[in-house]
Amino acid sequence: MDLPLLDHVFVTVDSDTYQQARDSAFLHDDYARFMVKQARSNLSGAYGSVCMAGDNTLFEFFDAAVPPLPGISGGVVLSYERPGALDEVHQRLLDRGATSIEERSVERTVEGT
Q1: CA distance 91 to 39
Q2: Residues whose CB is less than 8 angstroms from the CB of residue 92 and which lie 6 or more positions away in sequence, other chains included
Q3: Are 42 and 108 contacting, i.e. CB atoms less than 8 angstroms apart?
Q4: Threshold 0.85, pTM exceeds
């Protein structure tokens, strides 16, 4: 059985908070690995975010004025190492009576990569 890996956590914040995080010398210089990201996703199109990275995961802020996922204010993103594992996980959840399951495969490109 494939266990999920914590890929990252994201939260949508008001524009002032987003700008403060983006421009924070403390976050950029002293707190964590830091990046302002411009990316494109097959799910949400072009978007920007402020990212802080630890050793094994990422915390990402989105601006509520231009959210990549309208109506979603935050979430936890899990990933699996083996292709096809998501289909098996989805089926296991259905077998256990889960309802309102939503799964999305996301492909994204980041400027410069």
Answers
A1: 31
A2: none
A3: yes
A4: no
Per the CB < 8 A criterion, the answer to whether 57 and 8 are in contact is yes
d(CA 44, CA 71): 12
pLDDT tier at 40, thresholds 50, 70, 90: confident
Asked if residue 30 lies in contact with residue 80, where contact means CB atoms within 8 angstroms, the answer is no
Alpha helix stretches (DSSP H) within the chain: 15-23, 25, 85-95
Strands 33-41 and 108-110: antiparallel
Q: Give CA 22 to chain center in angstroms.
A: 17
Structure tokens at 68: 């990549």
Compute φ and ψ for 5, nearest 5 degrees.
Answer: -105, 140
What is the DSSP-derived secondary structure letter of residue 103? -
